Amino acid sequence: RLLDVNDEAPTFIVNPTHLTVEENQPPNILIGQVIVRDADTFAVNGYLECSEPPEDSEHQPIRFERRVEPIQTQLQQESTTAVPELHFDLYTRQSLDREEGAPIRLARLVCW
């Protein structure tokens, strides 16, 4: 007996590939987008979910805001060949100043 497993790890596409932010800007500046894809189709282990780790969510310099596209999502889920895909807009969580405080940490988005 052969069972299919969730064997494809999610892939990340960041646009732009190198994020830059001008310092001392107000919070909530849109700085880019990230698309997360899972090569497992909806028909076979195609569940995809992402979130900021709870211990990091308020301390990360970047906020991940999921874009919901209900019509596209519904069409993808009805297809047996479509692959799961999530879209996130990236915003600054706070004003950034390189002379102030400790170095900025990287931001994490965990997907499964």
From TrEMBL:
Which InterPro entries does this UniProt record tie to the protein? Cadherin-like_sf
| GO CC terms in record | membrane
Protein name (database record): Cadherin domain-containing protein
Please provide, alphabetically and separated by semicolons, the GO molecular function terms listed in this UniProt record: calcium ion binding
Q: List, alphabetically, the SUPFAM superfamilies matched.
A: Cadherin-like
Classification of source organism? Eukaryota, Metazoa, Spiralia, Lophotrochozoa, Platyhelminthes
